[in-house]
Design the sequence.
C-alpha cells in the first residue's frame, strides 16, 4: 500500500536519476527516475510523491502535482428548505401568585411545605456541623501522634534470581506458585487432564520451588532490615526475626539471623532508653497526660516502668486529679490514666465540686480499668468489675486516642 510523503531533490546522479531526501531530513534516502519528474528540475525543489515502503528500501512510484494557492476563500452555499416561514416570536407568561395557606392541587398547604423544608434545612446544617467537627478533630489528632518508623520495602533480587535460575519451561510454574501459592495450583491441576501420578510429582516439585521462593523473599527482607536497622519500623523488624525460625536453615542464613537478633536487641534497648527519657522529660515539665500516654506505649509490650519513675508518675497523676481542675480536664486525665501501667495506684488529691454528666459517663465507661476511682463516683456496687451492657464496655485503643492524644502538647 502506497503512502504519501514530501521529498526534496538533493543532487543529480546522471541524466536518468536524482537523489532525494525527506523534507527536514539530513541525509539522502534514495534515488528517483527523472522520467517521474517534470522537466528542468533543480536541486532543492520539493515534491509530493507516492512511495512504497519495501524491505530493501523506499520506491517512489508517482509524483503528485503541486498544490495551487487559492486567492479567494472557500464558500459553502446554503440551500435551505426554500419555504417561507414567519420569524421567531416570544410571549412572556404572567407570574401566578399563591395566597398563604391556600391548598395546592395535592391537598397539602403551602405553609406546611415551608415548615417541612425548614426542618430539612436545619437537619442538613446540623449534619454538616457535625461532620466539620469530626474532620477538625481528626486533623488535630493526626498532628500530635508520634510518627512510626519507616515501613520495610525490600527489593526482589534473590527471589528473581531463583526464578531466572530455573529452566525456561519451569519458570511459568514458579510464577504461578508465586501468585497463588501451592493451594491454588492444586485446584488448577484438578481441572487439567494429566497422566496418572503426574499431578503428585508436579505438586511435589511446586512445593520445593515454593520453599526456595519463600527463603529468597525472607533473605530480601532480612537484607533490607540490616541496611536500615535504625529506622525501619519495629513491627517489620520483629516479623523478619520471627520468620527466621522457618526460613533461615542454611549456615549463611543462620549467620544473618544471628546478626538480625543482635541488632534487634540493640534497637529495642535504644528505643527503651529513649522511651524512659521522654517520660521523665514529660514529668519534669508537669505534662501529666503526655507522660501517662507515653507510659502506655512501651517499645516492647509488657515492659514495666522503673520503680523511681513509676513513683514520680503516680504523684504527677494524683496532682492532676484535684478539686481545682475542671470536669473536662478530669475526663482527659482519666482516659490517659485508664491505659497506663499505674492505673490501679492512682488516688486523686480531690474531687470536682460539680461533676458533669459527661464526666460521670466517662467514669462509667472506664470503670473496669479504674475501679478504685469509679467507686468514688459511682459507689461500690455500680463500680464492680462484673461484665455490663455494651455501653459500659471498655473502649478499644483506637477509640480512646483522639480525646487523650489531642492534649499531649497542651499539658
Sequence:
Amino acid at each position: 500500500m502506497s503512502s504519501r510523503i514530501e521529498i526534496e531533490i538533493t543532487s543529480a546522479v546522471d541524466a536518468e536519476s536524482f537523489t532525494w531526501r525527506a523534507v527536514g531530513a539530513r541525509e539522502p534516502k534514495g534515488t528517483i527516475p527523472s522520467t517521474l519528474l517534470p522537466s528542468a528540475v533543480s536541486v532543492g525543489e520539493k515534491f509530493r510523491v507516492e512511495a512504497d515502503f519495501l524491505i530493501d528500501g523506499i520506491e517512489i512510484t508517482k509524483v503528485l502535482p503541486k498544490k495551487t494557492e487559492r486567492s479567494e476563500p472557500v464558500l459553502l452555499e446554503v440551500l435551505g428548505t426554500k419555504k417561507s416561514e414567519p420569524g421567531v416570536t416570544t410571549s412572556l407568561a404572567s407570574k401566578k401568585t399563591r395566597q398563604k395557606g391556600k391548598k395546592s392541587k395535592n391537598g397539602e398547604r403551602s405553609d406546611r411545605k415551608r415548615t417541612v423544608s425548614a426542618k430539612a434545612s436545619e437537619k442538613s446544617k446540623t449534619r454538616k456541623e457535625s461532620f466539620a467537627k469530626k474532620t477538625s478533630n481528626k486533623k488535630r489528632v493526626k498532628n500530635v501522634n508520634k510518627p512510626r518508623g519507616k515501613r520495610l520495602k525490600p527489593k526482589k533480587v534473590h527471589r528473581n534470581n531463583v526464578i531466572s535460575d530455573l529452566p525456561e519451561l519451569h519458570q511459568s510454574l514458579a510464577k504461578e506458585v508465586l501468585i497463588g501459592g501451592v493451594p491454588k495450583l492444586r485446584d488448577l491441576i484438578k481441572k487439567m487432564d494429566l497422566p496418572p501420578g503426574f499431578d503428585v510429582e508436579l505438586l511435589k516439585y511446586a512445593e520445593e520451588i515454593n520453599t526456595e521462593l519463600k527463603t529468597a523473599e525472607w533473605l530480601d527482607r532480612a537484607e533490607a532490615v540490616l541496611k536500615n536497622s535504625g529506622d525501619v519500623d519495629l513491627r517489620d523488624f520483629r516479623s523478619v526475626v520471627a520468620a527466621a525460625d522457618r526460613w533461615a536453615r542454611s549456615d549463611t542464613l543462620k549467620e544473618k539471623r544471628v546478626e538480625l537478633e543482635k541488632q534487634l536487641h540493640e534497637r529495642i534497648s535504644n528505643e527503651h532508653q529513649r522511651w524512659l527519657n521522654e517520660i521523665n522529660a514529660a514529668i519534669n515539665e508537669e505534662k501529666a497526660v503526655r507522660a501517662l500516654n507515653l507510659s502506655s506505649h512501651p517499645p516492647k509490650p509488657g515492659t514495666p516502668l522503673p520503680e523511681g519513675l513509676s513513683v514520680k508518675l503516680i504523684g504527677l497523676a494524683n496532682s492532676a486529679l484535684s478539686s481545682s481542675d475542671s470536669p473536662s480536664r478530669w475526663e482527659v486525665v482519666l482516659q490517659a490514666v485508664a491505659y497506663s501501667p499505674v492505673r490501679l495506684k492512682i488516688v486523686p488529691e480531690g474531687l470536682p465540686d460539680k461533676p458533669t454528666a459527661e464526666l460521670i459517663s466517662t467514669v462509667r465507661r472506664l470503670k473496669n480499668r479504674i475501679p478504685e476511682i469509679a467507686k468514688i463516683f459511682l459507689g461500690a456496687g455500680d463500680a464492680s468489675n462484673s461484665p455490663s451492657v455494651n455501653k459500659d464496655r471498655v473502649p478499644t485503643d483506637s477509640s480512646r486516642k483522639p480525646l487523650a492524644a489531642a492534649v499531649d502538647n497542651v499539658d
The chain has three domains: 3-64, 157-270, 286-405. The longest helix spans residues 110-144. Residues 136-145, 385-411 have pLDDT under 50 and may be disordered.
